Amino acid sequence: MRSTKAPALWSRLGTVAAAALLMAATACGSTTNSGGPTAKEPPTAKIAPPASIGAGEGQLNLVLWDGYADKSWVDPFTAATGCKVNQKPAGSSDEMVSLMKDGGAGQWDMVSASGDADLRLIYGGDVKPMNTSLIPDFNNFQTYFKAPPYNTILGVHYGISLQWGPNTLLYSTKKFPQAPTSWSVIYDPANKGLVTVPDNPIQIADAALYLSKTQPNLGIKDPYELTQKQFDASVALLKQQRPLIKKYWALATDEITLFQNGDVTVGAAWPFQTIQLKAAGAAVADTIPTEGATGWADTWMLATKATHPNCAYLWTKWVSTPKVQAMQALSFGETPVNTKACAEMETLQAGSCAQYHADAPGTYFNTVKFWKTPIATCDDGTDTCVAYKDWQAAWTTITA
Amino acid sequence: MAVTSAGRLRKNRGAAPLQALLWRWPWVRPALLLIPPLAWFVLVYLTSLVLLLVTAFWTIDTFTTQIVQVWNLDNFRIILTEPAYRLIIGRTVGIAALVTLTDAVLAFPFAYYMAKVASRRTQTVLFAAVLLPLWASYLARVYAWILILNHSGLLNWSLQSIGLPPANIGYTNTAMWLVFSYIWLPFMIIPTYAALERVPDSLLEAAADLGARRWRAVLDVVLPLAMPGVVAGSIFTFSLTLGDYITPILVGGAGSSFIGNVVYSNIGIANNVPFAAALAMVPVAIMTVYLLGAKRLGAFEAL
Q1: Which DSSP helix (H) or strand (E) runs through A209?
Q2: Interface with B, mutate which of A175, A261, A398 (most B CBs under 10 A)
Q3: Which residues, 6+ apart, have CB-to-CB distance to B44 below 8 Å?
Q4: Best of A392, A395, A398 to disrupt the B interface by mutation (most B CBs within 10 Å)?
Q5: Which CATH number characterizes residue A305's domain?
Q6: Which architecture, in CATH terms, is B77-302?
Q7: Average pLDDT of each block of 10 consecutive residues along chain A (400 residues)?
Q8: Which side of chain A, N or C, has fewer Cβ within a 10 Å radius?
Q9: Which chain B residues have a beta carbon less than 8 Å from that of A25?
């Protein structure tokens, strides 16, 4: 199970590891925020979604993360709807965006895009609005995921939320009998040589999130939209952290090994690692510190030129049901957006609902800052923010 | 009569042209033989290198991440001026040199024993022993080293059971040096062995007759003659270490990035192909210099 999961989780690194948003300067402005009154209207906004789901077309072509259409829930779907599912796993958000160019070009029907690719797809006109009332389970979604800023613009839904995961603080309970309440433990010289964080430029956002609370005078509001000054402060913090790092981990399984062997005692992780380590009997726990955490979230989006829209809606309806949500969550190591999935998760694996924070209250989502690709255009419309290319370059100088 | 002779004439004319052609232009034969491999070399190998070189002089648009085809030296300027890249290049070359030196020192006595001392039977056994690790996957061998070197691994367990303090070399550059030296050792032993075997025993006997002790003969007679083999082996150990990026990911710690790791993250993560191309030219340049040096030391005659 673990070996099948690890590559899928690894590709997750590619999710965030996408390059700067591919959108025209005019399309940006303040669109990156929650679609407030200043957001610009995407090109497909006026395409009216269908009012009902017709008969399936017999085929469905999906661009997705490896493991997002597992046999265990695809086979029953095909049996029930007659829609044969063809999969094209993508290695990164960039690949997803390039596959979906020209509205999927009639070749692809849907994409399981992550937060950092969503706006590129929406403003590229590659995906079109979806009718949430055709998805009965939509009403059971966590409130936050009904209209998150990365897939809903000016009240129009460009997809249906699927799954998400937080980036948590993982620690050894032997070293920390009391749960740490702050990310400061991974910046504390007392833990020299005992810290591990992901080998990923988006880690700069984690530093920015920490600074937004500890150094309010920097004025960091959004950890993905940093001015040069805010960016430099975050990079400086990570350079200070560098001597404390035992290893920057690339694979989820690497971090598990590090904790298992006692090479590290604290680090940034996903719930997946905590669960695997606990299952292996390691004395660890995870927490979301008071500063909050970063996280990632995926959305099923409908291609503008989809040739099998009915199968696409049938599929979205199917993967939104509590049972499939629970199966996918446990198979991939992530959290369902459907609150009803909690009970199903418990049936499949007792205690998993709480482990994955699937029972989190709505306030929990105020503490999670979901990934989006940094672009040069800040929220106020000026081009003074640091773009992803520079994040990557800075990350090299930090980890060198 | 006339008909048959004309027929035969025609027939001969049909079979002859190719042979006649080859006879008239003798260079056609080797040309026909060489064109397929040469075409492969030029099209696939050189073309990709040239494309790499050309791309290195372009940049990407920060906003769209599309390649901007404007000639400039920005990528090279960054590589030369940014201390982080100099550090990474220095580390890569330094560890590659250290690994090469370590392997040469380890391989020489081993190869000497194999070539000059061991019996035929022992020689075969040793040869198999040298090649045996190559049967196992590279990854499996690197992971085995992780198990040995980590905090609660075999090394620390052994040290503690004989009352010594634990050595924390897991996930450090020391670990990388150890693992690289282990992994590339066969590539040093085999050319060294081949070179040593070519040294005639009569030369050692002559040295002994002239009063040289054994170590003196090894130093003054065998070593200079085997040197091209050692240099040939060093081409392998040096270039393989220089281009590796998997071992740094697996056994390296914080601050273990190699040139390959930075190339990888620029292509796979940042989509900055021009910069990756520019950085990839660095090992190409280093290897060019290295191979020219190796040629002067006669390594290519030893291969």
Answers
A1: helix A203-214
A2: A261
A3: none
A4: A392
A5: 3.40.190.10
A6: Orthogonal Bundle (1.10)
A7: 37 39 34 45 91 94 90 95 93 76 90 85 90 96 90 92 93 95 96 92 93 95 93 96 92 88 93 87 92 92 96 97 94 89 93 86 84 77 82 88
A8: N
A9: 63
